[in-house]
Amino acid sequence: MSHDLDQSVLNTLSQVSLFEGLTPHQLQIILQAAHHRHIPRHGYFFHQGEEATHLYVLLQGKARLTQITPEGQQVIIHLLGPGDPVAIIVVLSHAKYPVTARAHTHCDALSWERDSITRLMEQYGRLSLNGLKMVSERFLEMQDRYRELATERVERRIARALLRQINKPGNGRAAPHKITLSRQDLAEMTGTTLYTVSRTCSSWEQQGLITAGRGRITICNYTDFLNIAEDLPR
Amino acid sequence: MSHDLDQSVLNTLSQVSLFEGLTPHQLQIILQAAHHRHIPRHGYFFHQGEEATHLYVLLQGKARLTQITPEGQQVIIHLLGPGDPVAIIVVLSHAKYPVTARAHTHCDALSWERDSITRLMEQYGRLSLNGLKMVSERFLEMQDRYRELATERVERRIARALLRQINKPGNGRAAPHKITLSRQDLAEMTGTTLYTVSRTCSSWEQQGLITAGRGRITICNYTDFLNIAEDLPR
DNA sequence: CGCTGTTTTGAAGGATTTCAATCGATGTGG
DNA sequence: CCACATCGATTGAAATCCTTCAAAACAGCG
Question: Of all protein residues, which has its CA closest to the C1' atom of C8?
Fold first, then answer.
């Protein structure tokens, strides 16, 4: 990769959990194997079904992982921010990307080729252990969402999706909590329809829990809002 | 661990994908750090919410991972067979078991303490890389089930659950395919109710696709059955 | 200011759940 | 060996949550 980036990227990388606990020297070697990529707003890292060739680490920007059904219905699997690894799945030999990764804002990322990152992981146990940790965390979140989808009603699922968004590290923790997602986005995150999300939000707005706008939801009353996700009797 | 087990266990282990590609010497060292455990039928490896202290590798038997909601509703997260790792999540420091692991038949397993396996993984990159691969695979399955739950109707989800069961490595591939799961089990695997599963199975039986019994479903007409999972217009 | 894409809302319809009752299989003990 | 107890499976009817479709209101942008 180009040399002028090394220093600033090195600083960023030391805060990326995938690279935690590695020596500066190891980091240097890993970095030398990387390529720097820019993805414009609304561009794609890769598409679902393509041969999985590259692992990415997002340095700047926001992206989303989606899956699309044969019938054309879309589901949002995950929202990505700076520091997140994308497609750790490449370590599986002969895998295809199971999702589409799309840049939501302009994105700045490092990429490694499959063989290259696999070799590095085999060499540096700490690197693959970190990778294992990160996939495990994502796995736990997916498991929770699965259980939610299997057992909880729509209103609660939407509330939980909003709370998860707020509690993400990297998002400001200060009230009022503003979430920039459209009704459609929320529907695709919670396995429901645009219409149901809209109705639910309207109801919450009337109760004074949130203020809603075009592509935006702001939680005014955090504590009362929590009750929807937790206690709601039915 | 006791010495008399070493030889037979070594043979089994060489077929466990978590230990693929390790040298006999490395395997030996890893094995020395393991304990051997027997879990009787219907016994528990661990309970959801307990401090995660041990990683297991199932040598013999069948087990299941379940999550239970605060309201007491149960969800089946995964069914485990010989060779499967259990709770790779321990590598996350200070994690709690996110699920309960219960022996469905008598089980025979190896276990490692958290610190011990973490150290081994850091030391042997191949070990953690294998771990990463296995979590990734489970993650992919979970992702697919999530998308299914979010977008598909009950009938298709049940059909898919049955097919996944059949296509599991380790299960005989020969027709007729017999699946030993109760209606309740299937309901907990597909996010529906016992009643809906029963109705669906009855309907399939009338169409001659399956024969159903107490705690058992046999697929007679595999190709026609596939259509339910794939083509079914609505 | 008109255009485009997002959001809202109503009304109708449908898939699935819930509840209740019954049936059937399996295993046990008298 | 049969009556009984138990647990799983079936089935009907009513209720409900959510979707679907259609139409209108609204926001932001060139």
Answer: A198
Domain covering A3-149 assigned CATH 2.60.120.10 in the classification: yes
pLDDT in tens, chain B (234 residues): 544 456 666 666 777 889 999 999 999 999 999 999 999 999 999 999 999 999 999 999 999 999 999 888 999 999 999 999 999 999 888 899 999 999 999 999 999 999 999 999 999 999 999 999 999 999 999 999 999 999 999 999 999 999 999 998 777 667 789 999 999 999 999 999 999 999 999 999 999 999 999 999 999 999 999 988 886 543
Q: What CA–CA distance (Å, rounded) separates A138 from A78?
A: 9
The verdict on whether omega for the bond into residue B176 sits within 30 degrees of 0, i.e. cis, is yes
Nearest by CB to A69, which of B136, B138, B147? B147
User: Cα dihedral sign for B11, A128, A132, A111?
Assistant: negative
Contact A134, A51 (CB under 8 A): no
Q: CATH topology for B153-230? A: Arc Repressor Mutant, subunit A (1.10.10)
Residue spans per domain, chain A: 3-149, 153-230
Nucleotide closest in space to B181 (CA vs C1'): D8
Burial class, B223, CB count within 10 angstroms (exposed 0-12 / middle 13-18 / buried 19+): exposed
